[in-house]
Amino acid sequence: QVQVVESGGGLVLPGGSLRLSCAASGFTLRDYAMSWYRQAPGKERELVAAIANFGSTRYGEAVKGRFIISRDNAANTAYLRMNSLKPEDTAVYYCNARHWANAGYEYWGQGTQVTVSS
After folding, report:
1. How far apart are CA 96 and CA 114, in angstroms?
2. Which residue, 1, 61, 101, 117, has fewest beta-carbon neighbours within 10 Å?
3. How far is it, in rounded angstroms, from Cα 117 to Cα 26?
4. pLDDT of 8-60, one tens digit each?
């Protein structure tokens, strides 16, 4: 059974940090590009960060220099380290896995809530 499960969200003070995890099962993570998206109330889902199966990364403009995406293929897990969090980072964060050669193989997690507030 294919699953993508996010964890690590929660409530954090402005300026704080969180690490999100994305655990994959039922497929081999090394064959997939991994991405984090987020969606705030009333806004469209936006790309936060992505990491290719061979390791190159890219980031949304709003999070450059603050967030770091990484992957551990042996653990079948991807991560998003979020530093210097701002209230505008508040959103539901979703993990996405897309096969590097066949975009038809694409999986989404259910999301994890991140709230940045004092």
Report:
1. 17
2. 1
3. 36
4. 999 999 999 999 999 999 999 999 999 999 999 999 999 999 999 888 999 99
